[in-house]
Amino acid sequence: MPAKNGDLHGNAPDQCPVALVLIDVVNDMEYPGGDRLYEQAMRIADPIAALRKRAKTAGIPVVYANDNFGRWRSDFRQVVAHCLDDDVRGRPFVQRLRPDQDDYFVLKPKHSAFFATTLDTLLAYLGARRLILAGVTGDTCVLLSAGDAYLRDFHLHMPEDCIASIDPADNSAALAYMRRVMDADTTPSSALDLDALSSTSGAGDDP
Fold first, then answer.
1. For residue 160, what is the DSSP state?
2. Closest by CA position to 146, among listed 157, 126, 66, 60
3. pLDDT by residue (tens digit) across 6-30?
């Protein structure tokens, strides 16, 4: 935890040993394979929405780690508006998972939520040592984000009902890999005890 500016000048007022990171859920799905991903993503939309609601009730901060759609001038509000207001394939998915004003966000230029983003700094100010990762796609962006989180010694929860890929077989293989190599907990979201996770001592989570 930084010694000064404990709330990042008011921009990170929450304190919690766990954070929910939603990866690429603001997604227009207007790209090759997007039609197949949409079918799988809609299966996880309601579980993620329920998990997000429970997390906020438990005082767990929600962070949207989202692709910038390849545009270095991207603004997160514009990304959200594009997915909600334009006639794009992913709109029904995004409607279920739209962010609130008090949610956090980082825009990512590549696959991992950590690469060339401010996520490290944000999580340090929040005091998070455990991450719940959810979103798309399980075999690329979620997997690579989990790998970067594992290298930073975060404890990982990857609810299997909240992660989707274009190919369900690839998704299952990615989850199995994260369980085996990263010691990720893939317990379904409805079985996660969020109150217990949010009250976990930060000191006990240090590697």
1. G
2. 157
3. 665 555 568 999 999 999 999 999 9
At 85, list the tokens. 């207001």
CA distance 164 to 70: 22
Which element (helix H / strand E) includes 101?
none
Check: CB of residue 24 under 8 Å from CB of residue 65. Answer: yes
Instruction: Output the pLDDT for position 6.
Output: 64
pTM of the model: 0.91
pLDDT digits (tens, 9 = 90+) for 100-149: 999 999 999 999 999 999 999 999 999 999 999 999 999 999 999 999 99
* Domain ranges within the chain, ordered by starting residue: 18-205
Superfamily of domain 18-205: Isochorismatase-like (3.40.50.850)
Burial of 119 (0-12, 13-18, 19+ CB in 10 A): buried
| 8: CB partners within 8 A, 6+ apart | 121, 122, 125
**Contact criterion met (CB below 8 Å) for 91 and 98:** no
Residue in this structure with the two tokens 């603004």, named with its chain if needed: 75
Bridge partners of residue 21, in order along the sequence: 63, 133
Amino acid, res. 52? R
What is the predicted pLDDT for the residue at 90? 98
Q: Which residue has the tokens 């609810």?
A: 159
Buried b (16+ CB within 10 A) or exposed e, 48-63: bbebbebbbebebbbb
